[in-house]
Amino acid sequence: MNNGSRLLSILLKVSEKAANIARACRQNDALFKLLVQEKSEEEKNPRFFRDFKTLADVLIQETIRHDIEIEFPELAKVVQGEENNTFSNAMGESIVVEVCSTIEETTRLLAKVMGSDIDTAELLASEVHKDVQFLDVPVVAELPLDFDIDISDLGIWIDPIDSTADYINGGEKVNGATGIHLSGLRCVTVLIGAYLKSTGMPVLGVINQPFYENVKSIWKGNCYWGFVENDIRKSSIDKEPNDKMIAVISKVEDVGIKSKLLIAGFTLIEATGAGYKILCVALGHADVYILSKNSTYKWDTCGPHALLRSLDGGIIEFQTLINNPDLNYVDIKYVSTTNNFSNSNGLIAYRKFEILQTLKSILCK
Fold it and tell me: Which residues are designated catalytic?
């Protein structure tokens, strides 16, 4: 198996392992209440009055890093994510959360975080060390076996649980006309994206929805992937989108922008989760995701961006389109030379290029 196909297989399997951890934490009430911890002021996303960091976030991130390192040791140092791996237990003790070499060692480490609760630590450690097979991944397309990738040129961004507030609060709100979820567990995603360090462009992306459907009180997931490099494009999504004049936006989008879109005939859907909103565009449920603010980060968009690129779409900078409408569109890049990882110029995520021309005529007046 070529390196590209091999890496994709690993990312899909570890995304499902991540989904298993997220579901295990969410379905155990006692464990779930134990794990929720409020973020420090330095770590808060400014869009939210309250934001949360959970052990599930940290554990998933470190599990993804660990499993990638087993197969591709050279990638371990280029895996970046939203969370730091230091967690404080109820006694105020700071503990570095990591995946140990054995399930027993991981259990003992997690038990320190959870006040010596061996039972729940064993539950989580068993998920971390579980041998997930490709057939366990709920993906609709067969894995391609014939594409390669330059491992030495890769960087990786991960978001272990995108839309943490929905993960914590639950509840489901759906727009009946479009079927797009406005909030709730369906909006929660695990996001993994690989980009080329030489160009900053995303080339391989995985989106896993741990809470896609609830069957007899058991949550089941869904998973999507995309790969693009030069003229090669492969994806688990093959359905062609139809023009719907639907834009997904955040709940805090600028009033003036919303007004222009409404006047132009767009239906606006305010949904949570950047990863979920981009997935809605990839699946053709919406034409575009528009965000004028700097409230998303590289880990939110790298994986979904690769998926869109595999479908001939992309993610460009919102402010560049508005300020320089006559210039070529500028894709978001993922090489960062600072500690500011936000997409500071906002974003426009699209699947069909023609929508950008439409938006230019609407927004640049």
Answer: 57, 82, 159, 161-162, 164, 300
Distance between CA atoms of 236 and 307, rounded to whole angstroms? 9
Q: 77 CB contacts (<8 Å, ≥6 apart)?
A: none
Residues 17 and 13: their CA atoms lie apart, in Å, by 6
Determine whether 29 is exposed, middle or buried from the number of CB atoms within 10 Å of its CB (0-12, 13-18, 19+). exposed
Find where tokens 């995946």 sit.
Answer: 99
Cα–Cα distances (Å) from 63 to 38, 66, 81, in that order, read: 22, 5, 12
Cβ 31 vs Cβ 138: under 8 Å? no
**Nearest residue to 3 (alpha-carbon basis) of 65, 81, 64, 74:** 74
- Give per-10-residue mean pLDDT for the chain (365 aa): 89 96 83 61 49 72 94 93 77 85 94 81 92 90 80 96 89 94 96 96 97 90 93 88 93 95 97 97 97 96 98 94 80 85 95 93 87
Six-digit token pair at 118? 């061996």
pLDDT of residue 325: 76
Longest dimension (CA), the chain: 62
